[in-house]
Design a protein that fits this description.
Layout lengths: L6 E4 L3 H11 L3 E4 L5 H6 L7 E4 L9 E4 L2 E5 L4 H5 L2 H6 L1 H6 L6 H6 L2 H7 L5 H8 L3 E6 L2 E6 H4 E3 L2 E2 L6 E8 L5 E8 L9 E10 L2 E10 L6 E2 L1 H7 L6 H11 L13 H22 L5
Parallel strand pairs: 1-3, 2-3
Antiparallel strand pairs: 4-5, 5-10, 6-7, 6-10, 8-9, 11-12, 12-13, 13-14
Helix pairs in contact: 7-8, 10-11, 11-12
Length: 290
């Protein structure tokens, strides 16, 4: 199929892009990497009146360390995040997740900001942002505001970003010294959309779990914190009994969507399997024995 007719403007500054968003509102779409936008245009799932190309806005690119916070510009390509020494040293969860983001060609062009702003339920970066307690910085012509990841993802492709706002940067707290992180997902083939996935981040002392955060993606309409599963996990030694309790509690956290990738029951089962594997890995990485 071919994309519908639309106008095209290349923004020459962030202020220019924001002026265009003010003028066109929901009739505009931001073109960054285009790896998600272009297929939806060609399938006519998206029919904007105007595309605002921000690819030359270098002020939206880059990775830096601000104290204990890793700051990633929204226009930073996935491959740049994957190859960053700052990210690998301070955000090992993100580094572990990046190879699962589609395929090499898409990682070379796609941006971390585009992935988070789109909020595809099967995407890896929204789940990482939620697991690590990231802050999303958005900007409109009136200024910037910060949105905690816990408040950003509202539903299927829906976020707290207003139609006249641009996601400009993501601020990740550096991983705490004594914490461990684990990323896992299941898909039909590597690079395909995930069917089930988990981000685990917290502290393990011996085999005892403390302050562990579990975030699930791909089975729901957005990344979800497993509140009941976390309550059944933290403060307990990791064992078969704890695993069973966490699996049972997870049924109160997740309400999977059935689709061509599988039934709701199958996806819930896969998330339970991933939870067990992730915690086995977390204990092992912390130096514990199983």
């Amino acid at each position: 199929m071919k994309a519908p007719k639309f106008s095209y403007v290349r923004a020459d500054s962030v202020e220019h892009a924001l002026e265009l968003l003010d003028k066109h509102g929901d009739d505009a779409r931001i073109l960054a990497g285009g790896q998600s936008l272009m297929p939806t245009l060609n399938m006519r799932l998206s029919q904007p009146e105007i595309l605002i190309d921000i690819n030359r806005l270098n002020e939206l690119k880059g990775i830096s360390l601000d104290g204990d916070t890793v700051v990633i510009g929204a226009l930073t390509r996935h491959v740049e995040v994957l190859n960053s020494d700052i990210v690998s040293a301070h955000l090992p969860l993100v580094t572990e997740a990046m190879p699962y983001v589609a395929h090499v060609a898409i990682r070379n062009r796609g941006t971390i900001g585009g992935s988070i702003a789109l909020s595809d339920p099967a995407a890896e970066m929204p789940a990482c942002a939620l697991a690590l307690g990231a802050t999303l910085v958005v900007q409109n012509s009136g200024g910037k505001r910060e949105i905690p990841a816990e408040q950003f993802f509202h539903g299927l492709y829906e976020t707290a970003r207003a139609e006249n706002e641009l996601l400009v940067e993501i601020r990740f707290p550096s991983q705490k010294k004594d914490n461990v992180s684990v990323f896992m997902e299941l898909s039909r083939r590597h690079g395909d959309y995930a069917i089930a996935g988990i981000c685990a981040y917290g502290k393990v002392t011996g085999e005892t779990i403390d302050d562990m955060r579990l975030v699930y993606f791909a089975s729901e309409d957005r990344p979800v914190i497993g509140e009941h599963a976390i309550a059944a996990l933290n403060g307990h030694a990791w064992s078969e009994e704890t695993k069973d309790a966490v699996s049972a509690a997870l049924e109160n956290d997740l309400d999977p969507m059935a689709n061509l990738n599988g039934s709701a029951a199958m996806k819930l089962h896969l998330q339970k399997v991933l939870t067990g594997r992730a915690m086995d890995t977390a204990v092992s990485r912390a130096g514990g024995t199983l």
